[in-house]
From TrEMBL:
Belongs to the cation transport ATPase (P-type) (TC 3.A.3) family. Type IB subfamily. It is found in: Cell membrane; Endomembrane system. It comes from Limimaricola hongkongensis DSM 17492. This is P-type Cu(+) transporter.
Amino acid sequence: AVPVSIMVGTGRAASLGVLFRRGDALQALDGVRVVAFDKTGTLTQGRPALTDLDALAGQDEAAILADVAALEAQSEHPIAAAIVAAARARGLAPQGAEGVEAVPGRGLKGRVGGRAVLVGNARLLSEAGVDPAPLEDLARAQAGRGRTPVLVAIDGAPVAALAVADPLRPEARAVVGTLRSMGVEVAMITGDSRVTARTIAAELGIDLVEAEVLPEGKVAAVQALRDRGPVAFVGDGINDAPALAAADVGIAIGSGTEVAIESAEVVLSSGRIGAVADALSISRRVMRNIR
Ligand code: ADP
Ligand code: MG
């Protein structure tokens, strides 16, 4: 009877766009107490747009945007695409940046036309010896609206706070509600600032938030949540792979990167995050039948 229920369950799951890559995943999912989502690209669409360009008094906004876009043209981060597109839309032709370096979890540094440019979060500026304080009020207001502040310093001086907003996936709020009604805790893990993360979490009805997590810190964030019981982690990106492997159940978005899919026990082939709730309810039904 056992293999039959599991076969029926995995077949039903497949028709809903849920692929169980390992036989024991159906059983493991039944025991999950916490579902942790990666924010960018999983709860959000992963396609941010530039929403703000707040420069300090006396600064030239267009010149700043051009310098920033010159650096971002060499980055693969979703924030980079938003900024480059905004610069193009304003008819700016960013001139070549030199020595551009990505600082993981923080942003970019490089030179444009002899100017030293920093683009990223407060930590990036602080660690480079630039006090981000003059930009703090602007950044806090942006973050309080769920946007990601992008601070800019030129030649060692803070000059502007840009912000990008990444729209939520339309089904994100509903899936959080469904999971909570099924008695599991829902968490969000992100490299974004605490204020931005808390604002978005509040919109979604999520109360467990791990923010300002560095790329190599996602595994530790998953491990910390395991104090509450078995954890399923839902993610899509290359840097989600270690966390997917570290979770009791790794759930990858089918439209995500190959590495993420390879590291997961469950794949949402439909690309819908609503399928997380479908997967959980199927696993519960199957395991109830078996017992
Ligand atoms: P996430 O995937 O949650 O955005 P990351 O580790 O990629 O996490 O980034 C963490 C933070 O570092 C971002 O929220 C942003 O503030 C900053 N950052 C990273 N890359 C860039 C970039 N190319 N331009 C500006 N800021 C960046
Ligand atoms: Mg992601």
